[in-house]
Amino acid sequence: MPLKEYKISMEIAGPLAMWGRPDTGSSPTSYPIPTWSAAKGVFEAVAFFSDGKAWINPVRVEICKPVGTESTGELHYQKYTTNYRGPLKETGKSNYQFSALVVADVCYRLHAIIENGTANPLRKGANPCHYLKDKFNRRLKNGRCHHTPCLGWSEFVPTYWGPVRDESSIPEIRTEVDTAVTLNLVSILKNVFTPEVNGSYSPVFQQGEDSWIREGVFNYVE
After folding, report:
1. 199 CB contacts (<8 Å, ≥6 apart)?
2. Tens of pLDDT, residues 40-76
3. Distance between CA atoms of 203 and 201, rounded to whole angstroms?
4. Kind and range of the H or E element at 200?
5. What are the Cα distances from residue 74, in Å, to 102, 105, 194?
6. Structure pTM?
7. Which residues contact 120 (CB under 8 A, 6 or more apart)?
């Protein structure tokens, strides 16, 4: 009998998002979708266990649009200028400005599986995966979070984050997968640290057939 999968989902949308490509240097450009690590961070903004007994493993992202709207399959980018206030700023000197290319008018559905982070089999009364799923769904429904989810950079606050707005939602706010979007990303950063929990710096990229967005859907691979 296969082990039970503890699945969770959420939706997040906003005017601007920055999922930084590491190959674009001091003038960063955004991927069109969140990396695996970024999606994990969005989920963990709602709920997570600091002891790692259960952890959230993103498996899929879907690019969405309002129900019934036409789509050309194109993604929209725009220039964004901000002040640098990072660790390389010289003490006593003014902040300097740099430009980035960010993705605009985004809406994503994120899907994940909660993994067992212990060395023990799950059982009734001692199941951290079930507990984390229940905690996550309860917080998501009530609009509660550990800290406000963001669309990459912390200043990119979403206009919506919460349960997936599917056919169970009121018609005015429903979204659907934008199946017109098919794109070869060539190479996309998956995660920065390996292994995924308490790992060391060892970036992993998805390439080849695993780098495609197909009909609005991108799957994170193991």
Report:
1. 193
2. 999 999 999 998 899 999 999 999 999 999 999 999 9
3. 6
4. strand 200-207
5. 14, 12, 33
6. 0.90
7. 126
Instruction: State both tokens at 200.
Output: 């060391």
CB atoms under 10 Å from CB of 212, counted, come to: 17
Task: Please answer whether residues 136 and 7 qualify as being in contact, where contact means their C-beta atoms are separated by less than 8 angstroms.
Answer: no
Q: Reduced to 3 states, what is the DSSP secondary structure of residue 39?
A: helix
Q: At what angle do helices 36-46 and 128-142 cross, to 10 degrees?
A: 80
Residue 161 in contact with residue 11, Cβ under 8 Å? yes
Question: What is the rounded distance in angstroms from the CA atom of residue 166 to the CA atom of residue 73?
Answer: 20
- C-alpha–C-alpha distance, residues 1 and 6, integer Å: 15
Three-class DSSP category at 119: coil
> Is the separation of the CB atoms in 196 and 55 below 8 Å?
yes
**Cβ-based neighbour number of residue 174 at 10 Å:** 16
